[in-house]
Amino acid sequence: MDDLDKYIxxxxxxxxxxxxxFDKGYAQFKIGALLKQARLDSGLTQEEVAIKLGTxxxxxxxxxxxxxxxxxxxxxxxxxxxxxxxxLEVA
Length: 91
Prior knowledge:
about 90 residues, 5 helices, 434 Repressor (Amino-terminal Domain), mainly alpha, about 70% helix
């Protein structure tokens, strides 16, 4: 566990509200970060993905930076546009 993880855990123990909201927000952030990294690994720009999906670059940016409440169909289409496939896991 690095210093940031230790700090976050300490803050979560002090604030139940932070603990609840942090985990939810982090999960949403992580989805966007994973999508962006997969796009970069595919060598595509946001503009190129937008063209493949028939949308605007701003929509792709919104998906990558604000992934909360993203539709499953959007995730599937995004993955296909970057040459990947979506794998879901319930743990």
